[in-house]
Amino acid sequence: MRSEAPRARPVVARPKPSETKLAQFGGIDPLLARLFAMRGVAASEELDLGLGRLAPVSALEHIDEAARLVLDKKDERIIVVGDFDVDGATSTALLLRCLRAFGFSDVGYLVPNRFEFGYGLSPEIVEVAAQRSPGLLITVDNGVSSVAGVAKAKSLGIPVLVTDHHLPGSELPVADVILNPNLEGSTFPSRNLAGVGVAFYLVARIGRMLEEQGVAGAARIPARYLDLVALGTVADVVPLDHNNRILVQQGLLRIRAGHAVPGIDALLRQSGRQGARCVSTDLGFAVGPRINAAGRLEDISVGIECLLTDDSSLADEHARELDRINSERRDIQATMREQAFQYVDSIGEQRWPACVCVYDSAWHQGIVGLIAARVRERCHRPVIAFAREDARFLKGSARSIPGVHARDLLEAISSAAPGLITKFGGHAMAAGLTLEESRFNEFGELAAAQMARLYPDADFSGAIFTDGTLPGTAMNLAFARTLRDAAPWGSGFPEPLWSGDFSVVEQRTVGSNHLKLRVRSADGGQVIDAIAFNQAGAACRGVVQLAFKLDVNEFRGVENPQLVVEQIAPLHASAA
Fold first, then answer.
1. Are strands 421-426 and 430-436 parallel, antiparallel or unpaired?
2. Which one, out of 97, 99, 121, 167, has a CA that is 20 to 30 A from the CA of 405?
3. DSSP 49-79
């Protein structure tokens, strides 16, 4: 039985920028200027997304030591140790492609299977790597918390370069070099780099050093693979500050120009998207999930191989396999999501704890992060979903809300009850942990208590923050295209979202659970198409309030403007 739909969320307009702020954006569409100002853009220079505006490579602490360490091992075997998500896969592919193009003689990779080795450079994965007699191990998108694994490598005489972006714990590994913009005391301008962003800075510095040594063209090699950087950055949902927007925009430009690696092109085609029209949401919602599915259910290696091959036929083959795995992932997720929704609905909204913990012994540990995200959308508070790691331990994945730092919350729980959490790590909005199954209830109670102590004023309303009202005269194809091409939208730089009152002219259900509408804005204007995904049961009669995005819908080669509806609510049911 399908759980009942959650209540309508309050709709709140973001504060309007002052005329002084808007004045700095002379020469651009006033509506765009308002959107940029509301997203914290302080000056028109921040709208320049050329590579020349990128934070200097030299500004990243320890970059020279890291590059020299890699160059010193140019004629030895180098093994890149990745992670089992898109950020890890793109980081691995980027390093291998660039180092091989630089002329390195022997570069390979190793990614721990999450079900056999768990996350990061563990002592066990070091033993596997040691069998290949490497001259250097390079971690990408992991390693800053791999204290025991790095110690194991050092005991075997294997140098280690850690490249990571995760927040460090109280103890750092004794690696030869750690490259991470989130190390304590870092002054790097963009601490929001994804793992693939850190890897890009590394190969950019190596390329420049090789150029200085007389290797012509080496400095230009890393920029060939900015499509990989864009994919990993968007898929890892790191905040799109100015630096990350540059990386994403430049990668998108390469994809649109037909210069993407064959694997990205193949995955776009497999998901029904066009490279020539690729935008950040295509990477985040079409390409990324297909690669992630392999790491969640099986082995991320097929995703890495898809990004490494230059054979289009082989890339298509890998893309089809990734699509098959992703379909399996969707089926498993649907069952788990329904079970999780039924559980939280059975508790009742008034009794939801400040931090919601959900667990079922039959759940798949590769999917719990997605379940935590879906339950968070329903409960509007931090959620930690668990699955069995083995007969004794549970693997948990946390997803947080704005204003609540997921990793800090886990650290507070660990400090309050030493030994309760076996290990943990992560970011502000997402984190992971391991604990004994027998202590699940104890953990849930303590999580709620620490949440209430640390964040007594946390906002659990789930408010939808909009850019106000979009004039009916702007609901046209020209402005929809302008928005599509204006900037790479994403985390920390959200795609424009508006609210307004509309008369419902027509409605029908399409697909399994989508609502297709034709609506007219309350201020008059033309009738416009709208689509509300997974909202077929929404009350939609007469005049309603919509929270929506303006999109370009293409069907059979014809483009039309379309509203993508995030929420439908009875008129004036939400507070503006």
1. antiparallel
2. 121
3. -SGGGSPPGGGSTTHHHHHHHHHHTTTSEEE
User: What are the per-10-residue average pLDDT scores of the chain (576 residues)?
Assistant: 63 90 84 93 89 97 98 97 95 98 96 80 95 98 95 98 93 97 96 97 98 97 98 96 98 98 98 94 97 93 98 98 97 97 95 97 96 96 96 96 95 96 89 96 97 96 95 92 92 95 92 90 87 83 92 90 93 49
What Cα–Cα distance (Å) separates residue 162 from each residue in 114, 150, 516? 19, 9, 49
Q: What angle do CA 397, 95, 245 make, to 5 degrees?
A: 65
Give the CA angle between residues 477, 482, 483 to the nearest 5°.
100
With tokens 């998207």, the residue in question is 273
Q: Which amino acid is at 8?
A: A
C-beta separation of 530 from 546 below 8 A? yes
Position 450 scores a pLDDT of 97
pLDDT of residue 348: 93
* DSSP 8-state symbol, 490: B
Distance between CA 123 and CA 120 in Å, rounded?
9
The pLDDT score that the predictor gives to residue 203 is: 98
Structure tokens at 68: 């020299």
C-alpha to C-alpha distance for 157 and 130, rounded to whole angstroms: 10
Which phi and psi (to 5°) does residue 490 adopt? Answer: 170, -160
Q: How far is CA 129 from the centre of its chain?
A: 28
**pLDDT of the residue at 511:** 83
User: By CB neighbour count within 10 A (0-12 exposed, 13-18 middle, 19+ buried), where does 133 fall?
Assistant: exposed
What pairing do the DSSP bridges indicate for beta strands 421-426 and 498-510? Answer: unpaired
Q: Pick from 506, 504, 507: which is nearest to 522 by CA? A: 504
Per the structure block, which two tokens stand in for 284? 């985040």
